[in-house]
Amino acid sequence: MKLTILGCHSATPRTNTNPTSQVLEIKNHMFLIDCGEGTQVELRRHKIKFSRIKHIFISHLHGDHYFGLVGLISTFRLLTRETELHIYAPKGLKKVITLQMKLSDSWTNYPLIFHELDSKKSELIFEDDKIEVHTVPLNHRIYTNGFLFKEKPYERKLDMKAVLKANINMAYFRKLKQGADVVNEDGELIKNETVTLDPRPTKSYAYCSDTKYSEDIIPIIKEADVLYHESTFLNKNEDLCKVTKHSTAKQAATIAKKASVKTLVLGHYSTRYNGYSLFKKEAQEVFENVLLAKDGVSFEF
Predict the structure, then answer these.
(1) Catalytic residue among 34, 64, 210, 295
(2) Distance between CA 85 and CA 113 in Å, rounded?
(3) Cα dihedral 44/49/55/61 (nearest 10)
(4) Residues 6+ apart with CB under 8 A from 63
(5) At how many degrees (to 10) do helices 69-78 and 93-103 cross?
């Protein structure tokens, strides 16, 4: 599971800071999460193939999270893309993008499919045989979702010595991998756990963009391998969280601790601060395993 941070700052882009956007590579998928201004430039800078992006997830309709989207959609058209592009976003984004394309007479030459979101409860929005993606309802000034990306369980592993000793026909190997008990050549029922080994652990990534401190998300992201949680402010500016509905680094760490996640990644820093070491320091007062998102940095988990 690889996470590439294309941008991790709030509000406006600057020469050395980009608004929110990141790429998650998991189980042969390359998911683009949020798409602030300059996203396609950063995709090129980090040599991420445009053709591999088939699913884009937009958390909410504040500009620093989606103003780069129409440009990326247009570039896909100029590159003569043919494959489908799926966009999962709050209701209203389809209207915005469609109007821009209509007025510029720039309709796509590939299927552009919007999945409009408006539920305030967590819901399954994408699924295939390897991955599930669920929304994480957040508490911000407008309708906002985070996203939980979860690998589906792997098959169990055959303990071949035990399998051969139990005299099991190879026709039943598939069932064994799926966790079923089977009957051997002698007509005996063989318990699955006696001839198989536990599968390798699955991985999960929880992305929580703009939100005030909310323990409502804890049951949804419980025990995630990695949690990206916004940390717009330091503790000295906690009073600003009430007005803006953002979080501090310490509040993000509290969520990480209560949700028993393995790793916390901080991001969405306010540009009022000159450096970010204090974000990590304040968070680690509550939760030890903290990483700082930085534009252009990749993490592998």
Answers:
(1) 64
(2) 6
(3) 0
(4) 19, 36, 37
(5) 50
Percent of the chain with pLDDT over 90: 97
How far CA 292 is from CA of 83, 170, 228, 244, 279, in Å, comes to: 35, 49, 10, 22, 8
Pairing between β-strand 196-197 and β-strand 157-158 as defined by DSSP bridges: antiparallel
229, 232, 235, 241 alpha-carbon torsion, rounded to 10°? -100
**How much is the pLDDT for 252?**
98
298: β partners: 4
Residue 64 annotated in active site: yes
What tokens does 241 get?
A: 């969280």
Residue 265 in contact with residue 291, Cβ under 8 Å?
Answer: yes
Amino acid letter, residue 92? G
**Phi then psi for 66, rounded to 5 degrees?**
-150, 0
For residue 50, give both structure tokens.
């445009």
Q: How far is CA 149 from CA 8, 121, 195, in A?
A: 19, 16, 31
The residue among 45, 54, 106 whose CA lies nearest residue 78 is 106
Q: What is the pLDDT of residue 87?
A: 98
What 8-state DSSP symbol labels residue 19? B
- Residue 26 tokens read as 């998991």
State how far the alpha carbon of 79 is from the alpha carbons of 51, 102, 109, 122, 149, in Å.
Answer: 9, 19, 10, 35, 29
- Report pLDDT for 23: 98
* Cα torsion 191, 192, 197, 202: sign: negative
d(CA 143, CA 176): 45
Q: Which residues contact 159 (CB under 8 A, 6 or more apart)?
A: 195, 196, 197
Question: Which amino acid does the sequence have at 49?
Answer: K
pLDDT digit string, tens, across residues 225-272: 999 999 999 999 999 999 999 999 999 999 999 999 999 999 999 999
Is the pTM value of this prediction over 0.85?
A: yes
Q: Are 118 and 168 in contact (CB under 8 A)?
A: no
